[in-house]
Predict the structure.
Amino acid sequence: MSRIEKAMERAAQIRQGAAAPPASQEQPYLRPIHTHPPPVTGTDLIVPSSPFLISMDDPYSPLSEEFRKLKTELIKLTKGATFNNTVQVTSAVPNEGKSLTALNLAISLAQEYDHTVLLIDADFRRPSIHSYLGIEQKIGFSDCLLGEAEIGEVIIPTGIGKLSVITAGRGVLNPPELFASQKTRELIADMKNRYHDRFIIFDSPPVLPFAEARTLANLVDGVLFVVKEQLASQKNVKEAISALKGCGLLGMVYNDAIVDRNDEKYTSYHRYGQIRR
Ligand SMILES: Nc1ncnc2c1ncn2[C@@H]1O[C@H](COP(=O)(O)OP(=O)(O)OP(=O)(O)O)[C@@H](O)[C@H]1O
Ligand SMILES: [Mg+2]
């Protein structure tokens, strides 16, 4: 049995309540640095519990349909002569639905047979991808930027299509400086080349309050800008867009819009649930 198989078997035993071995018998590969959730196997899939995620069981729900349209647009905009595979999701101010947009878009892409997706939680202020997916937040992207973990070590397969995620990792005191470092620039360039055939989607903090969102926008190929109805003011949106000048702005996602039920154009989207589009 390989080391990885042994580690997975041991992790499964621990999850099933088997007593942990005395510290002296613990294998080095089970020490805390490697205690992020073990690789997901066919029988141990992540089952997201958030009501805001598109349903894996109902790919034809109105919400899934909206994300399918967004996905189609994104593919058109990023797959040309070269594949512009690194995409950041941001907004002007907090709480506009960046993380849910990034996650639902990533799920929608990954459910299509030929799209492998790596979703990275690059929001070190309010990381949330792990909680939407119901996974533990241990080592992650910040640890890689700090040079304390390798990207390969922190990737978590989800079992949702071909979706893998990297959680935010440990809290850091200085996100703007960290994102502005040469190491971050090199790491993102390296990931873009190493995973050149997969989408890499970065969930990020909002642009107006946090400088690192603007820095990241200069390191990725494209930016998707989320605007939540009745949240950011027009002034906020204009300021944020002008702060992103020179970055590859791909387009805007208008989130949580109130659908006019009397408008015939929306006939097929009447059954909206908690997320309205
Ligand atoms: N379309 C929607 N319909 C209903 N509620 C929504 C919608 N989009 C977002 N929300 C609500 O807003 C909350 C925040 O969403 P999300 O975490 O995606 O925002 P965010 O922009 O990533 O926030 P932050 O700035 O803190 O990172 C969700 O938990 C949900 O309650
Ligand atoms: Mg967020």
User: Anything to note?
Assistant: The CA atoms of residues 53 and 104 lie 6 Å apart. The chain has one domain: 46-269.
